[in-house]
Design goal:
This protein is mainly alpha-helical. The chain has one domain. 82% of the residues lie in helices and 0% in strands. Helix 3 runs antiparallel to helix 5. The radius of gyration is 19 Å and the shape is elongated. It starts with 5 loop residues before the first helix and ends with a helix.
């Protein structure tokens, strides 16, 4: 049985803290990307451009953190309708009824982006692993 000294404990604790900090950073990026996509959807009103932003952001987050990529779809995708609601309540910007419903469609390109990014990370890890 290995004898773990106090230095090993501190090292493991420092690594755990760094991992938690990276995870908070990734969630912050996801919220920021979601707010940006929602704002673009509110101002431009083009679902295709919004979908492009959601795909790109979910793909980036899927590459950065490929474990459980569905969470990036949820975080980024839910921000788009929330920003539409905030724009309705605070900015008095009245989106069309179709624009409100189409903001929920941001989940579909997000699924493709997040799982595509996770698959891309898996392929890159597999190719770059030295044997």
């Amino acid at each position: 049985m290995p004898d773990f000294g106090i230095d090993d404990f501190r090292l493991r604790e420092a690594r755990a803290q760094a991992a938690r900090a990276r995870e908070r950073l990734h969630y912050g990026l996801a919220v920021l990307f979601g707010i940006l996509a929602g704002w673009v959807d509110l101002k431009v009103g083009d679902l295709l451009f919004t979908a492009l932003l959601v795909v790109a952001s979910c793909m980036l987050l899927g590459v950065l953190r490929p474990q459980r990529p569905w969470r990036w779809v949820v975080v980024v995708g839910i921000c788009v309708p929330v920003v539409e609601l905030m724009g309705y309540l605070m900015l008095a910007q009245r989106p069309y009824r179709a624009q409100v419903y189409e903001s929920f469609l941001a989940f579909f390109p997000g699924i493709a982006g997040a799982y595509g990014g996770a698959a891309l990370r898996g392929v890159a890890d597999n190719l770059l692993r030295g044997k």
